[in-house]
Backbone:
């Protein structure tokens, strides 16, 4: 075994922007004991600056705050920060400029925020789906005049689960259109987020900007990197997003049309056999199976399936022929793990493996 | 004013089959003080037979059991019953034969059960949508050799809300296809119904037989009565039904394609101006507006909108153009009022107005 | 019958301070069609001032905003307001000075806020319990130099249900001590109030200031008006308050010791036979029975019992001898009706009946 | 380190009675990878007998059924079973005779059922509280004529959390009386258990037999083993138990009186410093701290604290002087881990350490 001290010495030093929020807390939880990354800086845009993290942050996750995070002083989200690169889960309005500032100052910014996702020169990446899009980094550096820094984003929490379910089918059979209706968890709105009186005994058929994000991001994620740009996939997406009374785990009811005919067995096989670059590279946060198909008639369910693959596996069920489209299925993913903090961390692991992230000097 | 005693003398005497269940209790609640109907008999298939209703029934509705129902002895669901006609909310497996028996014995059976809905000679009716289908009663009597009795059904609790939202558009513009994803309330499964451990912090993407019912019933409801039969509408329906943690109120996310072009304003106008036979006849349980359109971006919501029109109005929101279909909208209806007991009662009121139900002698 | 126009002319004109909040909305809902009061002014301390009420207020109650309230312009909560007296549900920090200002300006202030409840010269009143405490108004006017105006308060939403259950026993047998553990509804915290992530699948064993309010207010409410002052009742109260995942309806588990021995039957009889001044005066909002005892082993339950007596009746169950105290019981009341807006309106009706509130001129 | 194969060879072979229920599933989950116990037999009283476990059991726990359990054939709960001893979570009515049968047939029965808990010759044990009570086994064997077998029980799921919080105080200061009001989780009622319509937006102030169990078991658990018998502690307990809408984690609001005076600091210190035999013996399932005290004003909360110490730690909060009793506090424990399956497993580990359980031959 490699001595711990040696491993520690090689760890990349990480800053977290938006550390006190729901996704920020997930970053801290998931980075606890991470073999490659070590959190050295915490920043937040709220009034918590200057306080110790355990005073600044009302921890909302089961399991408690890791002890190492407690004494770290919360800083303003502006460079310089004492770290090699940053994860960002800043609110959208602040993220745009702040992430640009960090990238310009030489930091790699691995962002979960929505601000830069649809920019033509910013990679929007799910490592199992479109790892080649990270080549946009070179384009971005040139265009924006960044030296060492860059911005890489992961999709919206719903889009990730949906696209992970679509990707194996798109690769093999071509998905030409899909209708998506989501039932999304409360944690997706952060904390305090959704008022309990809106959540209890209720459904809210609206999540600001979400329909549009799912529709746009899907086409970019399934797009092709060619001649220094991402050509969006010619896929028509209709998304209608709803908030339901679930703590964690976004569920999406999906109908889809395929370009090339495929039997139910072939579709099922494409999903269950799906394995991609993160699995080959054995990235630390990559689940053994990015997609699991359950054949029980009443799955997936958030409470039972959101933690599959440590929250990094998307569970698909209710797979069957559809009366209008070719097939229908229900996909479920953990929105703050696979759909947010885990997504960004997996992106960072991919970037390390591809040489875009390395210790200074 | 007409003296109360005179009105009382003219009331039709009603039996309720399945009186102890969730829908049975709604029948009793909604018939409390009804100007045309008076409950004189209660029947149930469970072990409650012979007991007083207040001993046999665990009342689950807010507001308490009406006093007049308390002493009524619960009888087996078999003719004869001391009443002029029956409402039935029997479980599907028992309903098929029992309802046939009652009809053969001379009782009109106004049923909320699924057993006979799709039979070619049984009217499946929403009074605002296809009141002319009640003419099937004559066909039914001839075919089955019924004398005075007959069976009339109302649709599944989800189908009602969906079809009430589709009907005005179908009439004006022709709906050729629609994709429906439902988020259905717990009361739709009866009592005890869904286990709390399946409901809390969860979504269950499966309701037995529901997808099929919504798909089939929609086509029959929007069909045309011609030459003694109902010709199903040539409408393609894809339904995927989910259970969510809501006590009452089914929500349906709908995308639809129209035969004839219509602007958003025309679609909206078709919905808001919708008024039909029950409104013209001023049937007692008919809401002023069968469909209400809400323009707030976050409506309809079960907790806020299920009781619109005393639970008989369907609330539509999120009406907008769709990226694949022509339009999308979200429809919400109270599943045990408009979707069950209220539906059957409105059917009975229609049948009275049309002369199919009248006091004996 | 009295002509409507005449009645209208005699109605007292009411202003509501804090009109956009949860309790403010309940005031508007409960005053819709009130025979004695007519809302003519709405005020709020938030950024809604100047807007029409239907633009300023996100209505959170089932049933929708009454049409008459829609166009009323929201004003700042400061005198003068175009009304004869005001109901106040202002936040505690603002209420103290604002209510004083209104009273000094000649308005009767019927307040649901906590600011003045424990002031020695301010009546804290439940009309069924201590109507004679309103005589403090005269003391208050003298002490504070108020001319026509005055402040009358109702208790905290939990204290009301608890004290309504205790009062009949205190009167007959003397309650010397009681241990109260509450399970309180989300609406008690207003809107947005409790974050859904704190409510779903959870209990929060803390409500700021609530333990203290229940303990203090109980003693004042059960106290005696003597020589121009209220002598607090010598009752020891231990309260521990919890927030549970219920929309409306506070439940309280109570153990109590009696001064004079009483059999279970006598205790039950004292509760069920309880009727007081509001019932004798037939005040408009007074329930037929202020307290109802249910003998089923699993009642009261918020969902089934909170609306008893239009939300003005407290339901008691689980009444039995206790192994440490003399008796135990569980009491439940609707927290925003009997526990807030309804409480204040009943106080106003009492004040009208007692001549403290009358039309100007 | 001891080679794994050797350890495997020494494992005790375990049968689980009631394997398909909620607690049975927790046994299987917690025994997955247990260093001392290996599940070799599964039994259930329901219609699942003869089927493979993965066909017989609807798995309701997050994380999925362990693969080793899948093919095991479910047997009737009657000796002989292919195992060294049995865990029992049979329903109370079946457990009484069945557990007796197993003990008589030579099996140690480590039971979570209530049937034998209060029998004078059956140990009711929490290893941190009264490990010396296991000496009753010898009495039991003699009285009942058991040869190798015996029955050992753990308390009711609520009583465990309550008594773990009381025990350190009882030892140091003597608890003479306590008033307990519980808010219990849905999983405590098994599956399907509580109907969702009773759980959602509701509290049910009744759990059959629970008040009595908490009152009786507390006195036995805190009792003294003397002259071959357990002398119950002279402690007065008043328990009122409520069901709330929480999946896992029982919360108890407690007031208590002490025999000997103790300052708040001393009480706090007694709780935080509490460590007992299982911690000294380093039993596999023993948490580092059986009781943790949280000083935040809004803890403990089920969602945040139930998994403390892998579900084996009881979290105490809201510790403060009480206005009637000496102190009040709120205690929370995981009801199906520390309160059921984990309790029984820790009992078994204690019995191994004490020589009552050993491999055959």
Residues:
């Amino acid at each position: 075994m490699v001595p711990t001290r040696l491993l520690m010495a090689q760890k990349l030093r990480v800053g977290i922007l938006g550390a006190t929020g729901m996704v920020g807390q997930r970053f801290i939880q998931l980075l606890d004991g991470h073999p490659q990354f070590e959190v050295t800086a915490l920043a937040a845009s709220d009034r918590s600056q200057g306080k110790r993290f355990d005073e600044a942050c009302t921890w909302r996750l089961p399991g408690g705050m890791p002890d190492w995070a407690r004494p770290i002083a919360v800083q303003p989200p502006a460079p310089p920060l004492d770290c090699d690169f940053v994860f960002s889960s800043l609110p959208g309005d602040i993220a745009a400029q702040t992430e640009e500032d960090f990238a310009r100052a030489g930091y790699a910014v691995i962002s979960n925020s929505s601000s830069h996702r649809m920019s033509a020169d910013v990679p929007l990446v799910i490592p199992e789906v479109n790892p080649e899009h990270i080549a946009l980094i070179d384009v971005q550096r040139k265009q924006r005049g960044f030296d060492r820094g860059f911005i890489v984003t992961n999709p919206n929490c719903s889009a990730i689960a949906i696209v992970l379910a679509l990707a194996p089918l798109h690769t093999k059979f071509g998905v030409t259109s899909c209708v998506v209706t989501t039932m999304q968890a409360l944690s997706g709105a952060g904390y305090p987020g959704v008022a309990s009186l809106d959540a209890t005994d209720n459904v809210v058929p609206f999540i600001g900007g979400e329909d549009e994000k799912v529709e746009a991001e899907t086409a970019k994620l399934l797009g092709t990197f060619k001649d220094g740009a991402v050509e969006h996939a010619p896929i028509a997406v209709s998304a209608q997003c709803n908030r339901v009374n679930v703590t964690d785990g976004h569920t999406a009811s999906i109908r889809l049309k395929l370009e090339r005919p495929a039997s139910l067995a072939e579709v099922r096989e494409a999903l269950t056999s799906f394995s991609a670059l993160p699995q080959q590279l054995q990235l630390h946060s990559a689940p053994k199976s990015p997609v699991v198909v359950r054949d029980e008639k009443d799955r997936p369910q958030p409470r039972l399936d959101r933690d599959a693959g440590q929250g990094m596996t998307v569970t698909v069920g209710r797979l069957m022929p559809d009366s209008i489209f070719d097939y229908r299925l229900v996909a479920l993913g953990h929105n703050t793990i696979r759909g947010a903090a885990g997504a960004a961390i997996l992106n960072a692991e991919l970037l390390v493996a591809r040489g875009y992230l390395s210790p200074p000097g």
